[in-house]
Amino acid sequence: MTSYDFICIGGGSAGFNAARVAAALGQRVAVIDGARELGGLCILRGCMPSKTLLYMAEVLHLAQNGKKLGLKIPAALADMRAMQARKRLIIADFASYRQKALTSGKFRLIRAQARFLDPHTLSLSNGRRIRARHILIGTGSSVSVPPVPGLAETRFWTSDDVLNLDYVPRSVIVLGGGIVACELAQFLNRIGTKVTLIQRSQNILRDHSPEASTVIQRAFVDEGIELFAGTTIRNVREDTKGVSVQFEHDGRLVTRRALHLFNALGREPNTAGLNLAAAGVKTRPDGQIIINRWQQTTAPHIYAAGDCSGPHEIVHTAIQQGELAARHAAGIRPLHPVDWSLLLNVVFTDPQLATIGRLETELDAAGTQYLTASYPFNDHGKSILMEANYGYVKVIAEPKRGRILGAEIVGKDAGELIHAFSGPLAMRATVFDLLKAPWYHPTLAEIITYPLEEIAEQIK
Q1: pLDDT in tens, 110-162
Q2: Which one of 195, 266, 393, 440 counts the least CB within 10 Å of its CB?
Q3: Are 345 and 421 in contact (CB under 8 A)?
Q4: Distance (Å, rounded) from C-alpha 95 to C-alpha 44?
């Protein structure tokens, strides 16, 4: 039986980067990945294909609304086959790079599925068994099917299906209001599909502030998406004409029909087939692996990172978690756990929604005092001339010295603008520090100075 210092189960963002670091530290490393294609969720079926298509849909939307800018554009339509061809070409490059890195010889790549036999031994689907001193679980997540009456019996699309569409569907009902639901609902609407979005909680993007969610909801409705939030889904049915969803909304029973159903009600950790009990690894009821701040599971020599352990399903944090686990397993000291007070999050709707650091709900729950100030995009020169009037910039700061605690941006290119806070937040900078920097006029980034100045005035 072959033995290793460090084994990664899964070759996605967490597993690959953990293996890369462990190998660089002189460890004997193996990566076990039995997926049909190598590359991980982000490259193959997540971040990169979705953002490629979203950008194309944004260009289409701008062309279709050229009249607002004084432009005569007779027609602008989505050519889905051409869009898919461009997406495949781009993703193939990303996937090829990852595949080459996985097969570079710096560590052993084993193309199989794995399950635990005991805390140090894995049984592989190719019939072999291997052992390791330390193991990282980075098996990611998959689309969940919540217990909505009729959903499991109904044919529905997942995000994979939407990302591979080579035609424009006439009508789609989207179940869910999370990031994937919102990004792809807007994509479908912009390519010409009649979209109805049904969300169970009171606001879409419920993990964000109600204020931010309201801006996105208004933009969706203005673009023509039929949106229902605060619903109770009663049943889902399929017949020869398509699908129907019956739900309660504002005290009445509502039914909507469409040709297709897109299930975007969330994802669940890919942990069910790992036989974690044999390894002494405990999970939460939803299958998410319990970890400590060093990424260790309840079996200290076994680590977990990325979607299968959380707490956030974000690629750059999965990379941080995987690298931390590899260093901790190799005995590198001192180490610092992932700093969640620097958490960065972006929703690629249009307008985009981006946050960083500690936000008001967290600070309120902790009883931490803070100052806040915001400024709207519809009163800023550059955004006005771009017809980008949705949203605002909000800055949150400590009340005595003005140290920046967090920021929230809803608006044009918010995902780019939020990075104006990344370095300063990590360096524990104050609003006064940022106001010493030059801000070019007229730029979108210049809008950040207004809430900074307001907080500075409050402290003075």
Answers
A1: 999 999 999 999 999 999 999 999 999 999 999 999 999 999 999 999 999 99
A2: 440
A3: no
A4: 7
CA distances 5 to 19, 28, 213, 322, 331, Å, are 11, 5, 46, 15, 12
Q: What is the pLDDT of residues 304-319, one digit of tens each?
A: 999 999 999 999 999 9
CA 426 to chain centre: 21
Q: Please answer whether residues 91 and 105 qualify as being in contact, where contact means their C-beta atoms are separated by less than 8 angstroms.
A: no
pLDDT above 80 for 1: no
Q: Give the C-alpha separation, 129 to 140, whole Å.
A: 22
**Cα(319)–Cα(95) distance, rounded to whole angstroms?**
17
What is the β-pairing status of strands 171-175 and 194-198? parallel
Q: DSSP secondary structure string, 31-47?
A: EE---SSSSHHHHHHSH
Put the strands of the sheet holding 226-228 in their side by side order.
226-228, 194-198, 171-175, 260-263
Alpha-carbon span 348 to 314, nearest angstrom: 13
Cis, peptide link before residue 311, omega less than 30° from 0: yes
- What's the distance, CA 279 to chain centroid? 30
Strands 392-397 and 404-411: antiparallel
**Which residue in this structure is represented by tokens 């520090």?**
433
Q: From the centroid of its chain, how far is CA 105?
A: 31
Under a CB-based contact definition with an 8 Å cutoff, are residues 271 and 283 in contact? yes
Domain 159-265 belongs to what topology? FAD/NAD(P)-binding domain (3.50.50)
- Which long-range contacts does 390-393 make (Cβ < 8 Å, 24+ apart)? 390/215, 390/218, 390/219, 390/351, 391/215, 391/351, 392/215, 393/417, 393/447, 393/448, 393/450, 393/451
List pLDDT tens digits, range 26-47. Answer: 999 999 999 887 777 788 888 9
Report which residue type is found at 76: A
What CATH number does the domain located at 341-459 have?
Answer: 3.30.390.30
Residues of the chain with CATH 3.50.50.60: 2-143+268-329, 159-265
Average pLDDT, the chain: 95
Instruction: Tell me the three state secondary structure of residue 183.
Output: helix
C-beta atoms surrounding 422 within 10 Å: 14
Q: Quick check: 357 pLDDT over 80?
A: yes
The CATH architecture of the domain made up of 2-143+268-329 is: 3-Layer(bba) Sandwich (3.50)
What's the whole-model pTM score?
Answer: 0.95
Beta bridge partners of 30: 7, 108
pLDDT computed for residue 62 by the predictor: 96
Is the pLDDT confidence value at 95 over 90?
Answer: no
- Bridge partners for 430 per DSSP: 403
- CATH 3.30.390.30 residue spans of the chain: 341-459
